[in-house]
From TrEMBL, chain A:
Keyword NAD attached: yes
Family: Belongs to the complex I subunit 6 family.
EC number: 7.1.1.-
Transmembrane segments: 6-21, 28-45, 51-73, 85-109, 136-158
UniProt organism field: Paradesertivirga mongoliensis
Catalytic activity annotation: a quinone + NADH + 5 H(+)(in) = a quinol + NAD(+) + 4 H(+)(out)
Protein name: NADH-quinone oxidoreductase subunit J
Compartments (UniProt record): Cell membrane
TrEMBL record, chain B:
EC number, UniProt record: 7.1.1.-
Name this protein carries in UniProt: NADH-quinone oxidoreductase subunit H
Membrane topology, from the record: Multi-pass membrane protein
Organism: Paradesertivirga mongoliensis
Matches recorded under InterPro entries: NADH_UbQ_OxRdtase_su1/FPO (IPR001694), NADH_UbQ_OxRdtase_su1_CS (IPR018086)
PANTHER family found in the cross-reference section: NADH DEHYDROGENASE SUBUNIT 1, NADH-UBIQUINONE OXIDOREDUCTASE CHAIN 1
Recorded catalytic activity of this chain's protein: a quinone + NADH + 5 H(+)(in) = a quinol + NAD(+) + 4 H(+)(out)
């Protein structure tokens, strides 16, 4: 339990550094460390597959792309565009909405029905695969179609309009 | 957690660490010797017999060179870059089974540091982290050539990781396990090696391994004649040595992974028919594994001095338009093959 509190402290500490560091590249690097602490949380919950997938997908792929874009733009403290107050207010409102949603969902969840205690082996690859492809097959396939449609949309947006050339 | 267990694992980690560094150091000599052989030269031959002490001389030179940190660079990240590159290169060896178990009286020593049941995915994760060292080092140098090299490395690694993942999925359909220990144990003898079941998957995997290690013909991140030195343009002394060393360690680890996944790991032909004690079989198996690894390292070097570097658009076309469709086709073919085998050739 002490280990959990230590790791939880590190997660919160580094995620605060993500927000407060001036240099965007530093922000991304702190975000990578935050994701690493989340991976440790998954391991503590005995969710090996989720841990390693978080490691590969978030730390190894998505964050590389974030870093890639930031390095390509090469943003500095000086060249950072001034944000208008309207955008700042909108950001605060959106953040609060997310907070309310999260708190509401966690309250509804309650800790009387913890999924992890019923079957501590659920996080292993074999058990997770059986659950995903049996009990939750339809949501699983629908979420993969969602990802595919997002990809198609991105390609469509990036493509030049043939009429305008 | 007993003390004996901790000491055993610690000793194993130290030995593997030493072997990784030793192999990486002598790979530099082997590279120059093989280059010399392929180009009809003699190669390094002054330090020691046939240049045996050349790696030591190179190492000493690297240590005593002046360390230059550019004033306009980001000091902390400039040092963190090569350190991260070395770190990610070295931690990959933790899940590789170097041999079967050795028995001393009552104690059984497994020649593997950690047998986690998501071993392949761990290797895959470490490989995907490998690019951070290059990216951070290249960006922190505050140099256009370094930045270009870093960006090339990032996009190249992301592109080839997908094809590599697809080839691994097809392999998993055959082995039914993610644990490297179990995969190695399944391939006993010669006929059970995975390369016979997955020839196309192996081809995709080895091409992707070349790209992930930034070896020629995929060494665009450091291509000398367009980017000066690529991501390590500004580096000197042992920090440059760190980057170069990381490349050779990566080569060693990826050779070990290829040997384990596709070429039977520590297994060798007729291993169960010799009638030797288990410990002897294990030791011969370790030697065979290293022979396979050295063959793959030789293959890396052979290709380097044979195939010229690709253009960047050729690299991207190969990754996205050739290897990924091939990888998907390989998965479908493997699935059909498994079903046909289970239905008709029981």
């Amino acid at each position: 339990m002490n280990l959990f509190y230590f790791i939880a402290f590190l997660s919160i500490f580094f995620s605060l550094l993500v927000i407060f560091s001036k240099n965007p590249v530093y922000s991304v690097l702190y975000l990578i460390v935050t994701f690493f602490t989340l991976t440790i949380h998954y391991i503590l919950l005995n969710a090996q597959f989720l841990a390693i997938v978080n490691f590969i997908v978030y730390m190894g792929a998505i964050m590389v792309l974030f870093l890639f874009v930031l390095m390509l733009l090469n943003l500095n403290e000086d060249s950072e565009p001034m944000k208008s107050n309207l955008i700042k207010v909108a950001g605060v409102v959106a953040g609060m909405c997310l907070l309310v949603t999260l708190v509401g969902s966690f309250r509804a969840l309650g800790d009387s029905d913890p999924l992890i205690l019923k079957n501590p082996e659920i996080g292993l690859v074999k058990n997770l695969g059986k659950v995903l492809f049996d009990e939750f097959l339809l949501p699983f396939e629908i979420s993969s179609i969602l990802l595919l449609s997002a990809m198609v949309g991105a390609v469509l947006l990036a493509k030049k309009d043939p009429k305008k050339i | 957690m007993e003390l004996a267990f901790v000491i055993e694992k610690f000793a194993l980690v130290i030995v593997i660490f030493m072997i990784s560094l030793g192999v990486a150091a002598y790979s530099t000599l082997a590279e120059r010797k093989i280059a010399a052989f392929l180009q009809g030269r003699v190669g390094p031959h002054r330090a020691g017999w046939g240049g045996m002490f050349q790696p030591l001389a190179d190492g000493a030179k690297m240590f005593f060179k002046e360390e230059i940190i550019p004033t306009q660079s980001n000091q902390f990240l400039f040092i963190a870059g090569p350190s991260l590159a070395l770190l990610t290169a070295l931690i990959g060896s933790a899940v590789i089974p170097w041999g079967q178990s050795l028995t001393f009286g009552d104690t059984v020593v497994q020649l593997q540091v950690a047998d986690i049941n998501v071993g392949i995915l761990y290797i895959f994760g470490v490989v995907s982290l490998g690019v951070y060292g290059i990216m951070i080092g290249g960006w922190a140098s505050n140099n256009k050539f370094s930045l270009m090299g870093a960006i090339r490395a990032a996009s190249q690694n992301i592109s080839y990781e997908i094809a590599m993942g697809l080839s691994i999925i097809a392999l998993l359909m055959v082995t039914q396990s993610l644990s490297l220990k179990e995969i190695a144990a399944q391939q006993s003898g010669f006929i059970n090696w995975n390369v016979w079941a997955q020839p196309l998957g192996f081809l995709i995997f080895i091409i992707c391994a070349f790209a992930e290690c930034n070896r020629t013909p995929f060494d665009l991140p450091e291509s000398e004649n367009e980017l000066v030195g690529g991501y390590h343009t500004e580096y000197s002394g042992m920090k440059l040595g760190g980057f170069l060393f990381a490349e050779y360690i990566n080569m060693f680890i990826s050779s070990a992974v290829m040997a384990t996944l596709y070429f039977g790991g520590y297994n060798f032909p007729f291993m169960n028919d010799l009638g030797l004690p288990q410990n002897i079989i294990t030791l011969i198996g370790v030697l065979f594994l290293f022979a396979k690894i050295f063959f793959f390292i030789f293959f890396f070097m052979w290709v380097r001095w044979t195939v010229p570097r690709f253009r960047y658009d050729q690299l991207m076309n190969l990754g996205w338009k050739v290897l990924i469709p091939l990888g998907i086709a390989n998965i479908v073919l493997t699935g059909i093959w498994i079903i046909v085998k289970d239905t008709y050739f029981k």
